[in-house]
Amino acid sequence: MEALMHNINIVPACRGVYVVMRNSGVAPEFLKVGTGGFFKGKNPNVSIDILKSNWVDDTSVLYIGKAGGTESSATLRKRLEQYMRFGNGEAIGHWGGRYIWQLADANELVVCWKEILDEEPLNVESSMINKFKEKHGLKRPFANLRD
Fold first, then answer.
1. Could you tell me which residues come within 8 angstroms of residue 14 by beta carbon, excluding any fewer than 6 positions away?
2. What is the spatial distance between Cα 105 and Cα 99, in angstroms, rounded to a whole number?
3. pTM (whole model) above 0.90
4. Of 4, 102, 131, 141, which one has the fewest beta carbons inside 10 Å?
5. For residue range 82-106, what is the model confidence (pLDDT) as tens digits?
6. If you ran DSSP here, which 8-state letter would residue 145 be given?
7. By three-state DSSP, how is residue 30 classified?
């Protein structure tokens, strides 16, 4: 993901959904203190026990997010830039997905996105999370804290 921050302009400036993925078969190493920013003074870090209880084996998908639609005018580029800046310790309002930044290999993760032109990104994101839950015993992706 570090490379994406330096090349954020490759991300389209439109609405859509994005997925953060980990392409490693090795068990994750969790950090007691991650790199996420303290937005509004709130500590983004949780206990390693919480991270372990949220971990989902046998998947590379760690987080599913959205950008734009009726709820927000944010574009994929803007939303992912906020996410990267939050992960670099800035006090940015991208609280969702914060567990990512307590992974030792967070900078090696991969981000994929899809432009959504004819549908509501919230609906697409919800559908993707529901399909994930169906496949993984009702567990959400690791860093999705709500449905």
1. 68, 75, 76, 115, 116, 117
2. 12
3. yes
4. 131
5. 999 999 999 998 888 999 999 999 9
6. -
7. strand
